[in-house]
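=== How it folds ===
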Amino acid sequence: MTDQTSSQATPLRIDIISDVMCPWCIIGYRQLATALEAKGVDHDIHWHPFELNPNMPPEGQDMREHLAEKYGTTPVQSDENRKHLTALGADLGFEFGFDDGFRMHNTFNAHQLLHWADGQGRKHDLKQALFAAHFTSGRNLSDVAVLADVAAETGLDRDEALAVLRDRRFAKAVREEQRFWTEQGIQGVPAIVFDRKHLVTGAQGVDSYVSILDQLAQMRS
């Protein structure tokens, strides 16, 4: 009886490996958040870095060109994908602002900024702000000034954010964390680990996450 009470009193640990360039990462998170709220699950989310395109140049790349080059996506398929993502986002309260000039960017600086924000208990807030900055507003997340602006809008100190990005004090720590998750077999995102042992990949949908949470509750009781 004591063990059961202790288990139920412990928040569900959720590790989410993701990249702010990944539309399915914000979709998957919003789906999971909806399921967590519906089930009233006490939880503790930890975000971790992953770069979909570590070799992306600083100037970024047009999204249509990028998808065609990386996946062979046709213009028609790209348009359909955008419509599908936009509809999914709207259902979850997230706005995708795709336009003809929408670009993908290098996110190593963003991950360094998130690492810094984690030390101030603001990583989750900054992560959400970066998703919106990229997908809703189309801001250039390769630009350190833009990143510092987003940090300030989230309530963090802009000057310190700039200093963190310019001296790259957390670059090594981010690389080590990226390497850790790669060594755990993470090759795509979103990747969500529940209770440090149950891996779920991709955006599963609200109903599927509800089912997963029910199964976890049974295992934890």
About this structure: Residues 1-7 have pLDDT under 50 and may be disordered.
